[in-house]
Amino acid sequence: MIHFHTIHDVEDQSWPLFLDVYTASFPIDEQRPTDDIARLLTDEPRFCAMALLDGKERFVGFLTSWKFDAFIYVEHFALAVALRSQGYGSMALQTFIAKVSPCPIVLEVEPPTDTLARRRVGFYERCGLALYDYDYIQPSYTPDRMALPLRLMGTLPTGTDLHEVAEKLHREVYGIK
Fold first, then answer.
1. What is the DSSP letter of 101?
2. 3-state per-residue secondary structure call for 105-138
3. Distance (Å) of CA 15 to CA 129, 131, 135, 156, 158
4. Sequence-ordered list of residues with C-beta below 8 angstroms from that of 70, at least 6 positions apart, any chain
5. H or E element: which one contains 104?
6. Among 144, 171, 176, which residue's Cα sits nearest to residue 33?
7. Mean pLDDT by 10 residues, the chain (177 residues)
8. Would you tell me which of 71, 132, 135, 138 could form a disulfide with 148, CB atoms 3.0–4.6 Å apart?
């Protein structure tokens, strides 16, 4: 069983664990600066960082998200390296999807061009997300980082305008006007 603990600020006992998993799980170009995350925790009501805890209250990973009117954007989702491939990821994501239902979710994923990326896409598909046929660029978080060609996946209703979704993410999450 997985449950969620909201991280409200950097004084939260889960914050150091969050940072360890965050920096170990994502390449630098896919990382929001941690000072920015700390600011979002207290200053941005649409942003939420949640520690994923098992039945023994052990930190197993985290999920960050943004709540918009039409969907929830999962910005980052990762498990502690030692706890991967043990079912925690699918349990956590399926619990999250059920928790926010009927609100659809959307997330960014690397294009399925290599074995690891195909495995990741397959994981999300097994959790009920669809890979959208839409060319998407994740803007850089800072000027010294690279923009990345990614893909969108989610549970959005058929016919959702993915260009509008991408524009919303660029404007609200990445600050691109």
1. T
2. EEEEECCCCCHHHHHHHHHHHHCCCEECCCCEEE
3. 28, 31, 34, 31, 37
4. 104, 160
5. none
6. 144
7. 94 96 95 96 97 92 97 97 88 94 96 94 96 95 94 95 97 92
8. 138
Residue type, 47: F
> Residue 87's pLDDT is what?
87
The domain total for the chain is 1
Write down the pLDDT at residue 154: 97
Phi, psi for residue 93 in degrees, rounded to 5: -65, -40
What CATH number has the domain bearing residue 118? Answer: 3.40.630.30
> Which residue bears the tokens 């999300």?
124
For residue 90, the model assigns a pLDDT of 93
| Whole-structure pTM value | 0.95
* Predicted pLDDT of residue 83: 82
Complete DSSP assignment for 13-46 = TTHHHHHHHHHHHS-GGGPPPHHHHHHHHHH-TT
Concatenated DSSP letters for 83-97? GTTSSHHHHHHHHHH
Q: Helix 15-25 crosses helix 34-43 at what angle (to 10 degrees)?
A: 130
Give just the sign of the alpha carbon dihedral 43, 146, 67, 92.
Answer: negative
Give the largest CA-CA distance in the chain.
Answer: 44
Amino acid type, 93: L
